[in-house]
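To whoever is on call:

I kicked off a structure prediction for a single chain this morning and the downstream step that reads the tokens threw a length-mismatch warning. I double-checked the sequence; it's 347 residues and nothing unusual in it as far as I can see. Pasting both halves so you can look.
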Amino acid sequence: MPAGVFFEKHEKVLAFVKWPIHKAALLVGLPLAFLWPLIFPNDYLLRVAIWVIVWSLAAAGFNLLFGLTGQISLAQGAFMALGAFTSIHLAAVGLHPLLAIPAAGVLVSGVGLVFGLPSLRLKELYLLISTLAAQFFFDWFLRTEQMAWFTGGAYAKYAPPLNLGPLDLSYGYPLYVTVAGIATIHFLALANLSRSYIGRALKAVRDRDIAAEIIGVNVFKYKLLAFVVSTYMAAVAGGLWAFALRSVSVESFTFLTSLEVLAAVLIGGVGRVVWGSLLGSLFVVGVPEAIKNALALMGLRGLDIALRDVVFGALILTFLLLEPLGLVELLRKVKERIRLFPFRYFG
């Protein structure tokens, strides 16, 4: 909280929207988020926007696990794959796609519960290695011949069309609104979870789990809850990606996917579950695409992929060195400088 600014009522502390700038951002940002494809119709930008939203859901789940609870996981890519294939199969047996996606998230969260059990005994590097083992296990397991019926084997697995009665939601602006609407619901739920007593318990576990247990926080319960919610969000993101692309394969979700989710959280802001995840995903997805297009315009088509990765990596290193707390903190500093102008702000 900025120095010299105090709330007079406890309700203000727990308010969903605390500051006037947040109200203005919501009033302008939400309509703009849903209406900009109508103002600037472009299929390529629409696909990139859907990509950003899907990755931000997976990043938000990881941010709750890592930023709020202090638990590390490098298996988000595997859980996204399980969510994608499970939602396709649930839709194939007759469940509506809009119900199959969250249902797949619930089913896959059971897998997250199992792989969250080591967190009760392991911490930091050792927990990271155990979740990394989960990622590599599913990378191998989903590629076996016995799982070809589930993943499509060497071929892609096709998802049924996304519709709502007579409305076709499987392409264009209707698909974007559907993905953005589902993401908004989940972001609101995560924001409320973060500011509730559950969120405070998760932060207590993150700061000092032994002290949290002494004051009555059930560390066992909240660590597993964080893994379950994180896995659910990754599975929902994978399901949305499957129905947005209409076909997915095992190669769509690899260890690199988990690293991209981790990078989105580090760049956006650790512990900033909603805005940090959104801004980080926008950076991780949008910047490489912008670099690729810029290099193509410069006539470097043969080198665009290699140069894109080099430039993107250099940008990440520079950003983390200059602002390790993420884009959210950078924007907060800009906001405070504007709010206190022309006075000097030391923060």
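Update from on-call: the warning came from a stale cache, not from the record. Cleared it. Sanity check on the structure: The radius of gyration is 21 Å.
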